[in-house]
């Protein structure tokens, strides 16, 4: 994480599967930041459960960098620094953007304009979840 790299897929799938199994009575699951690579999504759907939809928080790199650097002032996270943030942007373009396109082709992407205020973004997310009965 400190180097801006991703955790192994086997570990991630095991953690998600365990969390879902331990909360089997839930109406659904919102998995933050996953999948980040196409293989993660494909294996998740094959080994864990089908994906109902993907919330994609769309925001410019400039806004995201500003927010992450601000978070880094108090978070204590070692990956909230300019160099690592730039690596994460590159990782997104190379590995995660194809995931969004994969699910977009299946009409499973719900795109949220995340450039607005917390309340504006929350309102969009709430509407998206409510429209799906969640």
Automatic annotation (TrEMBL):
<protein>
    <recommendedName>
        <fullName>ADK_lid domain-containing protein</fullName>
    </recommendedName>
</protein>
<dbReference type="Pfam" id="PF00406">
    <property type="entry name" value="ADK"/>
</dbReference>
<dbReference type="InterPro" id="IPR000850">
    <property type="entry name" value="Adenylat/UMP-CMP_kin"/>
</dbReference>
<dbReference type="GO" id="GO:0019205">
    <property type="term" value="F:nucleobase-containing compound kinase activity"/>
</dbReference>
<keyword id="KW-0808">Transferase</keyword>
<keyword id="KW-0547">Nucleotide-binding</keyword>
<dbReference type="GO" id="GO:0005524">
    <property type="term" value="F:ATP binding"/>
</dbReference>
<dbReference type="InterPro" id="IPR033690">
    <property type="entry name" value="Adenylat_kinase_CS"/>
</dbReference>
<keyword id="KW-0418">Kinase</keyword>
<comment type="similarity">
    <text>Belongs to the adenylate kinase family.</text>
</comment>
<dbReference type="InterPro" id="IPR027417">
    <property type="entry name" value="P-loop_NTPase"/>
</dbReference>
<dbReference type="GO" id="GO:0006139">
    <property type="term" value="P:nucleobase-containing compound metabolic process"/>
</dbReference>
């Amino acid at each position: 994480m400190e180097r801006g790299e991703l955790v192994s897929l086997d570990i991630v799938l095991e953690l998600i599967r365990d969390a879902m199994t331990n909360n089997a009575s839930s109406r659904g699951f919102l998995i933050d930041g996953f999948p980040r690579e196409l293989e993660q999504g494909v294996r998740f759907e094959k080994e864990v459960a089908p994906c109902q939809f993907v919330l994609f928080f769309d925001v410019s790199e400039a806004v995201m960098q500003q927010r992450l650097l601000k978070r880094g002032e108090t978070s204590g996270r070692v990956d909230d620094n300019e160099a690592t943030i730039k690596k994460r942007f590159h990782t997104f373009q190379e590995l995660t953007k194809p995931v969004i396109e994969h699910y977009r082709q299946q009409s499973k992407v719900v795109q949220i304009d995340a450039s607005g205020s917390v309340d504006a973004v929350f309102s969009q997310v709430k509407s998206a979840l409510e429209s799906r009965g969640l």
